[in-house]
Specification:
83 residues, mainly alpha, 4 helices
């Protein structure tokens, strides 16, 4: 039961992190749809080589947000495996 609760907490935390990151990406000039997709792909580690992703790594704030998402995803994977 504790493992299920922990997994639920990790899942909801991931959802909130994606929402927050996508809002930050929208503030840097991306459309909401592109920001959500790129935030999800960075958090899950499924990078796509498109012109959209290239525009993300050339902008310093977007690059920081994506780096944070990649780091958090590794922490989340370790947490899920340990539960």
């Amino acid at each position: 039961m504790v493992a299920l609760f922990t997994l639920s907490v990790i899942l909801f935390t991931s959802i909130f992190i994606i929402r927050g990151a996508s809002k930050i990406l929208v503030l840097t000039g991306l459309s909401e749809e592109v920001a959500k997709f790129q935030a999800k792909s960075a958090l899950t580690g499924t990078g796509f080589t498109t012109s959209e992703s290239e525009s993300l790594v050339t902008h310093p704030i977007r690059r920081r947000v994506l780096s944070f998402l990649m780091t958090v995803s590794n922490i989340g994977i370790i947490s899920v495996i340990s539960t």
